[in-house]
Amino acid sequence: MSSVGTSGLVLNEKLIFEHSDPGRKGYSLPALDVPEAQLPTALVREEVAGFPELSEVDVVRHFTRLSTWNYGVDSGFYPLGSCTMKYNPKVNEAAARLAGFAGAHPLAPEHLSQGALELMFSLQQELAEVSGFPAVTLQPAAGAHGELTGMLIIRAWHEAQGNPRRKVLIPDTAHGTNPATAALCGYEVVSIPSDGVLSAERVAELMDENVAGLMVTNPNTLGLFESQIKEICEVVHAKGGLVYCDGANLNALMGIARPGDMGIDVMHFNLHKTFSTPHGGGGPGAGPVGVTAALEPFLPVPVVVREAGQYRLDSQRPQSIGRMRAFHGNFGILVRAYAYIRTLGGAGLKHASQMAVLNANYIRARLEGTYHLPYKQRSLHEVVFSERNLPNDCHTLDVAKRLIDYGYHPPTVYFPLVVKGAIMIEPTETESQEVLDEFCEAMLAIAAEARDNPELLHQAPVRTRVGRMDETAAARNPRLKWEG
Ligand SMILES: *Cc1c(COP(=O)(O)O)cnc(C)c1O
Questions:
Q1: Are the beta carbons of 320 and 299 closer than 8 angstroms?
Q2: Where does the record locate the signal sequence feature (predicted)?
């Protein structure tokens, strides 16, 4: 810490890891009161690694400072579409930290784990109620993992009928995890061109006895409700196939419509999208899966069941696809989702969906005249614009980078792939009208800058610690460790 400038800012720019002071330390250990042990020489380092030597104050300030350079849903509006970065009520955190939950050992016997098992059983029932599926597993650790679980169940069901079949139909608006999952399960992916929404006719053209099923997202990643979903399910079922629903967007439907009532056979939930619980940085999340009664025997083991007022883990299921995860899923996330559902209740969940849809439509109405809207059907919880109206060689990436200068995390960009230069905005139900208005003002100001001063967009961001990245170089030549 050599240069203490006149403003504290100079100091703040320095990374403490570059300022080691030999002999400085941040711990004080008690004197050794047991005999000193000799490590095998093969395990002893020849040289001590060059870690920085720092005091506790140095380290705390370093990490606290870094945390303020980050952007999170607790610090501002985070309109990433399809990801549902909503504010998570802190009461969920308090519940997850209760010692009986946070400290529970996953190998504790059933009679000492009745509270945890009851919570899991109740959450299964609540998710079943919201989705319209009679049975739910909580095991999968994320949405993609739920997809894998669901598609393995579909495969196991077909195998039990004597033929696993070869192909899976997936619309061109799908999240990349859908085709990846189908391929992992050994299926050939057949992409269905859709015009915003899927038509039952198109599905019928492609559906035959070699198709194991259809993977569909509803509402889809354009934020549009698949209005022919019932006919589509009938078409698939008529040829002996099953329908998988990617339920990542359930926050547009919960309390209003149930995928299980639409003819869907299997669906995953993203607890970290629909049912609050933190999300990002790679997790942990949770991707429970709901299934019809016919598919229940294939659920992963163990399944939480209730018998004579006691809860237990049932592993005696001969048709099960087996275990999908060690222990019982991301239990802390399950507690948070349970707390969220119990706090809101049925009416509150419905209200959350209504507000999510209202907020997305509010943004659509304010920006539609300025940004190009490729699909005119009614939006649900998210709205997708394109870069088509942007002048002066300004593109989606420029708008996203300029938004950072205005203090916002950018929306999802360049997805879904069917929209050239997609700008996908999902406000979620937790934002107020003032926040939405400020964001829309920023988007409109950026559109005006694109017209009058496009260089501002091309150079953005200019108000951040780090300027625009060379994304190609970052991908080809990543520097993944600190270099002093
Ligand atoms: C987020 C998402 C997924 C994947 O979920 P993860 O929890 O990130 O694995 C799949 N499909 C859609 C539509 C999504 O939005």
A1: yes
A2: none
Instruction: Report residues whose beta carbon is within 6 angstroms of any ligand 1 atom.
Output: 82-83, 142-144, 175, 177, 217, 221, 246, 248, 270, 285, 287
- The CA 270 to ligand 1 mean position distance, Å, reads 7
pLDDT in tens, 272-302: 999 999 887 656 899 999 999 999 999 999 9
> Is 315:301 a contact under the CB 8 Å cutoff?
yes
Q: Report pLDDT digits (tens) over 346-400.
A: 999 999 999 999 999 999 999 999 999 999 999 999 999 999 999 999 999 999 9
Pocket test for ligand 1, best of 80, 177, 425 (most atoms within 8 A of CB): 177
**Span from the CA of 245 to the centroid of ligand 1 (angstroms):** 12
Report the alpha-carbon distance of residue 473 to residue 171 in Å, rounded: 33
| pTM for this prediction | 0.90
Alpha helix stretches (DSSP H) within 112-161: 114-131, 143-160
Q: Can you list the domains of the chain with their CATH numbers?
A: 3-69 (no CATH), 90-343 (3.40.640.10), 348-475 (3.90.1150.10)
In this predicted model, what pLDDT tens digit does every residue of 451-472 receive, in sequence order? 999 999 999 999 988 889 888 9
Q: How far is the CA of 175 from the centre of ligand 1 (A)?
A: 7
Q: Which residue's CA lies nearest to atom 15 of ligand 1?
A: 82
DSSP state string for 20-45: --TT--S--PPPP-SPPPPPPGGGS-
pLDDT of 235 strictly over 70: yes
Instruction: Name every residue whose Cβ is closer than 8 Å to that of residue 182 and which is 6 or more positions away in sequence.
Output: 151, 168, 170, 189, 215
Nearest CA, atom 1, ligand 1: 83
The residues near 434 (Cβ < 8 Å, ≥ 6 apart) are none
- Give the N- to C-terminal CA distance of the chain in Å, as an integer: 15
Q: Whose CA is nearest to atom 2 of ligand 1?
A: 248
